[in-house]
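Translate sequence into structure tokens.
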Amino acid sequence: MVAAPPAATAGPILANGDFQTGLLMPWTTFTTANGSIDDSPHIVPFNTTGDMASLAVQLSVGENSYTGLPEGGGIEQNFALSSGGTFDFFANIASQNTFDLPNADAGTFSILIDGAALASSVLGNFTYPCTGDCNQTITGTLSGAVALAAGSHTFEVLITRDFLCCGDVGEYVDNISLSQVPEPATFGMAALALAGLALRRRNRKPLTSLPRPTE
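Result follows.
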């Protein structure tokens, strides 16, 4: 059996991806050119999975000056890989509107690595006018795979909305992860099987003809 190559790093590649430390660090915030993050982020309990609430990062993003174009911001983290390979990424996302206001955009969430958008999800619009207490939540996920070389990289979660920032809509991100995909060992196992077959044939004793009985 051929062992898979070692992972690029020991333990999780991204630090504090589930925010269970209760702090944002080592994540930092950023904004787009006309984007804003209003009085956030905060680390708060929130149910982004539909299962149960856990600590998540809460942001409130939007445009700084209204143009009708998607703007906002997000969080980012630098990381280093000691070896390259294929990596899976994932995040739970959610957006919540708790006000009876016509601010319908729940937001577009994206994962970027080294500035390249690798996955994006448009959560759509909240219902307006809403009924009851107007507490509406839309959830989703971001996931995919990417090939990365050894070295330094940047992981970003970007949230944009085409409304003025902020206050009436909260965006949430949780369970952010990046993990290396084990390399397939198919070829190595096949090579070992062929080598074993060749060794078996080499060690096999040749058959000799039995002596003829004498009369």
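Note: The helical segments are 186-203.
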